[in-house]
User: What shape does this take?
Amino acid sequence: MSEDFIIVEGLKDLGSETTKDYTLHALCLLGKATFTYNAEQMELCPGDLLIIREQHLISELTTTEDFKIKGLYISCNFIERTTPDMNFGIRSVLLLTVNPVLKLNKLDQWRCKTDLENLEHRIGFTEHQFREDVLSTACLAFFLDIFNFEANIYGENEVSNQNSNIITDFIDLLREGNYREHRDVGFYADRLCITPKHLSEVCRQVTGHPANFWINHFAKIEIKRKLRYSRLSVVQIAELFGFSSPAHFTRYVQTQLGASPKAIREL
Assistant: This one.
């Protein structure tokens, strides 16, 4: 059970082998951190909450000397086995995929800090006969507060069971890697037995973005990783993603990532 939680006061372990199977929840208390997340420049200031599962998307992390967080890594395995399916959860996951920093108001900062302190306190109950149940309940309260933080920031959005299932199945298709060869909405709509228009409308209603945004979002993340961290040539990467020619691939990368494949590789 203890390996399901890691309490931290800084970000030095972010992206390490130790934390790769964890989700970080970090409330900034002092100082500031700046970083690049999926090619976007971001900062973490006092009162901001950082929630990040895709740690490999963070680079160029710097912090001020007085930087301090109240942070907790929670293993993804614990999250999956102890929290029930909630329709709002899929919206939260997607919102955080685009921007992992939540700028909290004063009341929500207090709630977040209280939740994290409660979890730290509960983690110390090593002899509690119902420790996992206690921690699961404390985590669920924290996650529900996070959904409320997001509602305060992005607006309330009721997600029906039907729409939640559509989005979940759509994202599962993307996580399987279908975006490498299929970047048209019609492919996913056919697999889900709905029309492309309906898929895009559901995506926009739940997440604020149409279906093609998420297809390109997943594609961009992997293309950038392949360009920066693999030994594959540009031609090989273009073939992997099903582009008809390197020129077509270059135009796509330039449009989606704002730079040529060569420039991204040299960063």
